[in-house]
Structures are given as structure tokens and as C-alpha cells.
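FIELD: query
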Amino acid sequence: MNLFGGFANPALLFGLLAAAVPIAIHLLNRRNHRPLPWAAMRFVEAAWRKTRRRVQFEEWLLLLLRALAVGFLAFALARPFTGEASPLAGLTEARRELVIVVDSSASMGQAAGTRTAWEAALERARTLAREADPARGDRVRLIAAAATPRLLSTTTPEQARSLLDSLAEPTDEVIDLAAALYDVLEHARNDASNAGAQLDVHVLTDLQESVYLRGAEADERTAANAQAAPGERSLYEVLDGLKELKVKVIVEDMAGVEPVPPNVSLAALEPLERPSAPDAPVELRATVRNDGDRDARGVRVALSVDGQRRPLQTIDVPARSSTEAVFVLSFGSGGLHVVEAKLEAGDRLPRDDERAIVVDVPAAVRVLLVNGNQATRIEEDELGYLRTVLVPAVEDGALALQAPFEVVEITPADLGSSEVDLTKHDVIWLADCEAPAPSVAEKLDKAVTNGVSLIVSAGDRVDPRAWNQRMGEAGRKLMPVELLEFDGLRTREGRWSRPRSFDARHPALAFFADERFAPLFAEIPVYGWIASKPLDGARVLASLDDDRAAPLFVEREHGRGRVWWWATTIGPAWTRLPESPATLVPLAWEWLRDAGSPAPAPLSLPPNSVWRGTTAQYPRQALVITPAGARKPLDGEAIQQGGRWSLPPIPTTLTDRAGAYRIEIEGQAPLAFAIGLDPRESDLRRIDSTALTALHPVLQSAQAPRADDTNDNDTTRQGELWRAFALAVLAALVIESLWAAWIGHRRSA
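FIELD: result
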């Protein structure tokens, strides 16, 4: 039968060797006395023989007490622990290691009687912390569980209580229960100082059913060897690890409301299409979801744009369903606009009744057309059809109002003029142009490096050899391809090709992703083209169905800008594309809008995201304005990248709340982005205690304890013996001192 179950600090058992020190001192002292013959000593020896055994007993007992004191001290420092089956079980004490996991997700803000589930959880956590005994060595580990678990306290109950008082409200995040319990699992595995302590784990939550359903889905992916998301852990895999360590997880219900609480939420807010121009009408959709079991009637949806209220709508939302409210807006000016929607009805969870987005309304794209083949007749002019698409006739007022382009047309000879500033344009289109002179090529290179987009389309005046030489000098390689030779026919008689495949995910071609519109691009007859070889980093967006699958549409980044190659003409010389407005209009518009809009920083993010925007000028006195109205200076240095400045990243400590954020910069237009609440937090459906305990043997509902808990705990609970050994050390020292004093007193008498 094992007396000890183990030691918290087994290395300190080497201290037992120190128990031999008193014995060694005693033996060495005996060797220092050498007997000398002396006649008178025969009388002393006769008396000593009478008391020798008593003296030896006294000395050995004194020596034993000293050795025991050192040995007991070594055992106390090694902190032995044992189970209840040990004969020493009566000497143990159950030091508690209390782990309190507080659900800090957004759903904890739901009303639960006269208070919220969050307030109930904090009060329960304070009660648990007060039950811990600091004098006994109890420790409290406090974890705020949200998307990422945050360890708040690891030591005394007093520290845990003080930190609980500092928690104001739950986060706007989704709880990752697996990550929170994995922190508990790692603590139980790695913290040697916990050996022998009673580990009690309490999860204070609202029992949101979707949390455990997500855990089951992750477990199914693991079982099927499916690829999980980065950092994702299976909840039940973590629970299996806790089961191996015989740790129970007590789940306490803080909501205390009906199984399916009624709740209506704003699940989404989004424009149905990308705004094309400041004055163009845009449809914006607000999705209202009802997660309750009863229909919600007369739900009012209010909308505001940049703080200005718009007419509200009233809708009915069936139970366990959603309804859309569609608003038609026109913003009136380009730039970033904050759109906020709100449900004007009180319900169980107020946090999900509001949602904000930031809409980027593009200003007019400044396009510089360089026409290498001008003509009086539109069908002979290389840019005749394209110019008509970009600059509609004035009498077509509706279309002219919405055209999002400012077009300037020049000849190739004008490119080298000092009066032409390429940086004042967003897109430069070289159509059927001869290879530019070296000075012009250098000018184009600088413009693209600083963010201007360049489009080169083929034609009779494009000499592949000259273009390769001029645009590839001094390692410039401005073109995305190496031009080879002309292919096909220069007339419409004979063979032709069509786009064999195209990347419908690219913004320039996304219009044709719909199967109804795909033939408009896929069936374009192309009679002539210039074959090419894509360079490293180039992306072929479309290719032809000829024998060599010739690239038709190629893109590559260059500095902060991008360069496109269009292998055929944009005029009617080599293709019938310009004669099909249903193809040319969406292709030209989407292509140029994408080319003229630098990739912005994300405008919609989840809570606790890092956001970093860019500005055209050096940002001075940048301030972050949170949804609550707090103004925080943006610390850090801006970094210049090409012709723009990258702001310091906004830390996650400032992006923890859902809503619209603004960045005010001295002398510049403000920037904005929005943090959105995860719609899963709006589903307040709860899992009952019976279903919870049936999920895994480790989970135990505070309302429904398991029948087999007694057996598990009786055989596995352990206690520490260090305090008993510390008392033994004290007792040995006291007895040794009294015994030594008595011996000295008796011998001196």
C-alpha cells in the first residue's frame, strides 16, 4: 500500500540526505577525544560504567530528534500528497485550486429577471471566490471566456474579487469554450504546484445551445479528418483531456429564463450592389431575424446615414425566420459614409438591435485615354466605342449623371509633354500605341509605382520586340507579359477564337459570373491577338481557346499600382467586342472602377480586430473615435509606402465594441470602419441540464449532478501532507530543545 501518491517538488527529497549531518557531526566529535591512561580515572570509570547505558540512550535520542527534524523538513518542502486510500489520508488537507470561467460573450447581456446574465455571473463568481480560504493556500484562477480566453487572475481570492469588480460589461464577441477549457487543461497538466490540490472548475454561462452545437461540428470535422480552421480545437477533444485528469467541469446557468427566449436582431446590413457614383441610387438591405418561437409583428427598422435619419420601415418577422427591409439611398458625395440601422423595440438582448456598416462611395475615376489610332468615324477610331461608353451622350441625362468617370483623351506624342501629369489620373489606357520612348517609359514606371493603374491593349502599332525592349529596360519589367508575335487574322474572314475560360472572381469580370451573362464574355469572337508569355507574379484572368491557350487578359502588381495587358484591340479591328454594348459596358465599367480604386483597408470587421488604413498625405493628430464617443490618440508612426501613408495599426483594445469607428486626421477627410456583432450571438436558445450532462462525462450541470459523481470523487480526490510534516518538524525541534535542556540541567546538578 502506497503511503504517498506523489510529490509536488520531488527534487527537494534530496534534502533527506541532510538528516545524516547531525550523525556525522556526532561521529566526528567522538574521534576528536583520544583516551589517556591516568591512575585516578579507575574510580571515574567504575562510576561511568554504572550510568553508561542511560547516557548513550539520552544522546542517541537527542541525535534522532535532530535527524528527524531535518528529514521532516525535507518532506514538507517536497510537498507530498496522497489519496483517501492511504493510511495517511487522515493527516491530509484539501487545498483548493478554484478555476472560474466567466462567459464574456455578447449573449450574456441578455435580461434574466431583474438583472442580466452577466451581472448574475459576476455575483456568482464573487461568491465562489469568497468561499476560497487564503489561509489554507487556496488559489483562484479567473478566466474571461470570449473569442480568445483572457486570464485575469492566477493567485489569491482577493485578487480575483478585485478584478471582478473591474469588469463592466460583456464583450461583443462569440465565446470559444474549447479555447477556454483548453487553458484549464494546460494549467492542470503543467502546473506542478497544483499537485495534490482539489481542482474545481466552474463555468458561469447562459447555456447558449449554439456553443455546444459548434463544438459538436468541430468534433465531427476532427473525426472525419477534415481540415479545421487555424487554431480551432474540438470541444470534446479538450473534454477528453480533462477526463483523463479526472477533472469535472461544473456548468452553472446564469440566465434562468425560458428555453427559447424571444429575441429579434439585426443579422445583416449590406448594399445590394456596389455604389457606382455619388448620385446613383443604391439599394441597401437590412436583414431582421427572429430567433424566438413567436412571430414578431410591427418591428420598426430605423436607418441613418452619417447621423441623418431616413424614413423607417415596419415589418413582420415570422418565428425562427428572417425578413428583409430594403432602403433606397443616394449618398450625394464620394468617400466613406457611415450607415447605421436600429430596431426600435426593446427585447431580451439590446446589443444585437443595432448594426453599422461603412459604405465606400467612389468618386469619379480619372481616366487618361491615349489613343494610338484616332479617326473621324467611330468604327475606325480605336477608342471610339470605349469613349462612348465612358462618356455617354449628354441627352441621355440619367446615364450621364451616373457615369463615374472623368475622361481625358490625348495622343501618344502628348505623353512626353511636361504639361501632362500622370499622377493626376487614376488609370492610364494605352490603346494601339507604339512603344513609348525611354523617358516616357520611365515616367509611366514612376506613376504606376506610386499607385496609378496602367492598361495596355493591342493593335497594329504594337511591335512586340520594341515593347519588350522599352518596357523591360534597367530591370523595369513594367509589362505583365513578354510579348511574342501576332496570331490569328487581321480580318473577320476565316478562323477566330473565343475566351475559353475566365476568372469570374476578379472584380473586372464578376458581372459575367452569373450563368445568364457568362456567354456575353465567353462568346466574344476574337480574330487577332498578340501571343504572350506571362511573367512571374502575373495573373491570367482570361485565355483564348486556340491551340496554345493564348492569354487574353493578364494582370500584375507593380509597386503600389497594377498593370493589365489586353491581347486584342479594344476597338473593332480584331474583335467584335465593341459592337456588343451588353459586353463592353459592364466590362469597361467594372474594369476601370476596379483599376481606379486602390485596395482599401477592410471596412467591416469582427470585434478585437487590428485595423490599419492609408492616407494620401502624412497623417497629423490622428484620433480614433469609438462607438461610445471616446476619443483616443492613435499612437505609433505612420509609414510611407509609395505615394501613400500607412497609419499605425489600431490596437484590439480599441476595437472591442460593435459599431462605427471614425479616424479624424488634421487637414484630411476622416476615415471610418465598422465592427459587427456575430449573428450567432442573437440565438438565445438554451440547452437544458439533462442534454448538457449527456454530452460528455466531464460536464456536470449545477442543477443536475451526476449519479456517478460520488464514486469518482471518493477514489480520486487527493490531499497534501506538507502541513502535517511542518508540524512534525516543529514538534521534533521543541522536544529536542526540551530534552537537551533537561539533560544539561541533570548533568550539572
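FIELD: remark
The mean pLDDT is 83.
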